[in-house]
Amino acid sequence: ERETRLKFICDCTAGVMSSTGRSAFFSRTHVNYEIKGDVAVIRMNDPSVNTLSVQMQREMTEVMDEVWGNSAVQSVVLISSKPGSFIAGADLNMIQACTTAEEVTLLSQEGQKMFEKIEKSPKPIVAAINGSCLGGGFEFAIACQYRIATKSKKTVLGCPEVMLGLLPGAGGTQRLPKMLGLPSAFDVVLTGRSIRPDKAKKMGLVHQLVDTLGPGLKSPEERTIEYLEEVAVEAARGLAKKQIPLTKEKGLMQKIQDYVMSYPFVRQQIYNTVQKKVMKQTKGLYPAPLKIIECVKAGLEQGPTAGYLAESQNFGKLAMTPESKALIGLYHGQVTCKKNRFGTPEKEVKALAVLGAGLMGAGIAQVSVDKGIHTILKDTTLEGLSRGEQQVYKGLNDKTKKKSITTFERDSFLSNLTGQLDYNGFNKADMVIEAVFEDLSIKHKVLKEVEAVIPPHCIFATNTSALPIKDIAAVSKRPEKVIGMHYFSPVDKMQLLEIITTDKTSKDTTASAVAVGLKQGKVIIVVGDGPGFYTTRCLAPMLAEAVRVLQEGVDPKKLDSLTTGFGFPVGAATLADEVGIDVAAHVAEDLGKAFGSRFGGGNIEFLKSMVDKGFKGRKSGKGCYIYQPGLKRRDVNTEALEILESYKLTPNAAISSDSDIQYRLVSRFVNEAVLCLQEGILANPVEGDIGAVFGLGFPPCLGGPFRFVDSFGADKLVEKMRKFEEVFGNQFTPCQLLLDHAKDPSKKFHK
Amino acid sequence: MIRASKKEKCTFHFHNTTVNIFVGLFLSVVFSNHTAKSKKTLAKPGVKNIVLVDGVRTPFLQSGTIYADLMPHDLARAALQGLLNRTGLPKDAVDYIVYGTVIQEVKTSNVAREAALGAGFSDKTPAHTVTMACISSNQAMTTAVGLIAAGQCDAVVAGGVEFMSDVPIRHSRRMRKTMLSLNKAKTLGARLSLLGSIRLAHLAPELPAVAEFSTAETMGHSADRLAAAFGVSRLEQDEFALRSHTLAKKAQDSGLLSDVISFKVPGKDIVSKDNGIRPSTMEQMAKLKPAFIKPHGTVTAANSSFLTDGASAVLIMSEEKALAMGYKPKAYLRDFVYVSQDPKDQLLLGPTYATPKVLEKSGLTLNDIDVFEFHEAFAGQIMANLKAMESDWFAQTYMGRKTKVGAPPMEKFNSWGGSLSLGHPFAATGCRLVTTVAHRLQKEGGQYGLVAACAAGGQGHAMVIEAYPQ
Fold first, then answer.
1. pTM (2 decimals)?
2. Beta partners for A462?
3. What is the ipTM of this complex?
4. Which residue among A41, A83, A87, B301 has its CA within the 20 to 30 Å range from the CA of B79?
5. A132-134: strand order across its sheet
6. Is the dihedral of CA A522, A525, A530, A531 positive or negative?
């Protein structure tokens, strides 16, 4: 009797299983669903991160078909089981695996079809969003009939495809203009910026917001997702019963805007304005924004069929561009450089001391206190300390104005900061970062003073842009605890941190420095020791060349436009002003001594004359340009031009075209980068690219010096350099590794 | 009793909580053989017995009603005078007065002193004002306990007042700055240029909000999130609110709310009853829209405490002094604790944290308590606290305790109504809770009572009260 009962149960189960879809329930690993009364709750749970992978799309299609076919279901809730993300985006590997534009276009069209079905669903679908809802995930959400998002700090919406040289290829360029109106849609798609939940609600991107919950009978994260689901299920029911309207009544402004937009010439005007703005910002070096405008235009002017076709075809084309490959490469590189390849340090740095409250020191303090690291900021004078503390306060206060933190958070961050003039409390420091003046004897003095007061486990990090770490460590009693941490100015804005290890630096010291940098939110490269390390060493020859170009009579503005025209975000003359003419002179002299004539080019005496006149760049108000507080417009410093007169050089017409000047600047940079890899200063090309782009502003569309060599061709570059070498000598002699790559085209830095 | 005091001496020497728990457990075992009425006294050797002689309060009225034209110290005066009348206390027998208030009337920032003078207390009796949000009068009472325990005073009046019919509404910071500069401007030109700098936007006033300064979140919003975190449904909240109103109505009708004094409001009638008690039906309550989180929130006007005007006062004495003056005290005020936690996500969980702590301190368990009076800020807040106290997971994860303390049995809980129905003049509620415990202990024949309350800032309070032998 018992056996028959068991068999009965088994049969029933089998019956149920077949009715819910051929035991597919058990083979599905990414998507599952549950029917709650008349609402189907579809949960996405990719074993790793929720992305719109092939697997996810297949299972989603299956589940949707089951849900649509189930007459008991009146409405649908779409939710992620992952605490930090709804759908983080499309699967990049899926796109990268394609070899032709047509393949990518096909992927795009599949996505478009799937979301079209979602959009036309007879049963209302509520997207319940907690965590990142980006790219393809965002396009999925906006295809749904209703969106509810949590107010979690992790919840962000947006289409960052443009930052990867792509466009939203699953209907994003078509749906957003209809949802948001043309101006907002362009803003969202072209900038690729992340939109916070409250802003998304204001824009009309989401219909309802749900608060995050604190401690209860379950973990806050778990219960917040549950709560979101409960609210979404109620909303789905309301939608199905038509208690909640699907379309919101438009406000007066919206109506006026729609009316104005109904005139073709107004739309045309907007396309033109946006196009101009894009051209101004990208110098035409980035194809994606232009293609986005094209897609939006096609959809609005020629109808959806043309619009969707343009979107999928342009998506395919963009995926094959070197710009997109470069940007995706940077994205991957950035992810890599946000990991600690040296493992977990033995002791977490909880107490930090920063020496020197100058721009760098205060900047380092700022990015530490707001991560909860107790930080001592020490200076030698009350004035210096006061200025530094004010910088930290201002940095944090500006964030309250942008509402990224509250005034209360600002205060509590500031409570982690102790400003002082003595070494009190250094006996409890886990790490000391010195950011005093770049002078070896001062650095030595400071190191000895610090070592006398710090505990044995404490790490001594030195923030220098050019002095070799081993020279600084020479006077140390414990060189294994000495490391270089080269921050970039302004510290709170620049993402890169270059960490420099000597032969004696211990692995744990390195692990600890990387851990601190990561906590400070930095993208990190770890390089070997030597004059100028990696970044400064690449920059110095380029700036030397820039000085020569100025001496040859090229106007600073012209020099700037040549460099930005190549893709650098900041022109070479402006960059020199930003770095500081005095610093540039100092570094040029130091590196000149270390590397000899290869680092020559412009005349250092010119830089020194500038410094003598007090033209130290932006910080002194005058450099190549004149800086006036409150004024955005900058005039060329005519006095600087007068100084240039006395260092005038006659340009050689054969190598002085605009393009020649650009390649003279870039090839010296790139050659030095490759030499750094050849010499083992760099561990790999990825860090070389990341360091150049994030630290020095190497054109992102080129993906960094190594990717540039790969895509431009080492042979072509060598050819250009040989031409310059004939005139200028060894400054343009290609290094061996570059020659190797030139000889054998199959050799690539990036696979 | 001799055995008990011997054991207690041990704890006194060790001064260790675990020892206290042990002794508490031990004692409850020892005395569980006896009847409930012969539980040990919580008197501690070397610590003065401090008693509640009596407590009164003005009727608690919804703000903007009959009290609307008064000032806060008028209400406080009424409570103080009522206490004098009730106890027949000679005015000069009071050593000190401590009074609580939350939203301060700037003219009477030390409202304790103004009210005391106006109530005819001796001008030789010092008075100070304390503030600790909704537990301000608890703070006033425990300050009084401290003064007596330290041997500085023998008779202290404590109380609290809140007047929500009128609150300070300020000029904007820019406007204030201009006005203050105007005072200092010497020439006509300087004055005119300052006046000229005023913009329309500067005239927009600043309204006080019942919001946390640290998080900018209103309390109702936080309560709604708290209810959601503990999965408290709208239905549960409405049911609890209805219970509060029903019990309050019953208590009012049966004349149990004897702490309420009559008050002749100038220009108006004599007031002698709370006016916020309004037992409704579940159907009526279900119709209300959420007040803070829209559209899916669960906290509504009907299941929240309302803005209230009112004042309360209690007379606290050392036992010897009270007896010497011929009083029959109502209760002993025993151990108390203050707790605080995250003002964002645990704003209103004070009772959950304070209850086990004060019980441990007294060597009691939840089962020993006969009368519970918890401050009802929101029905959702009370239900969340009850669920938290009933959860081992919460106790282990957030409180560092091995087990839950347990939720109070409902038949002993706020059985004469609570803040939801009687009203909640922020700084006056604490005295109402303590007086009610004393009255309920007398009426119901229990021995121990427990007061617990949450307060803005993520703080909380609990106190153990012991019945005075009848």
1. 0.90
2. A434, A484
3. 0.89
4. B301
5. A85-87, A132-134, A156-158
6. negative
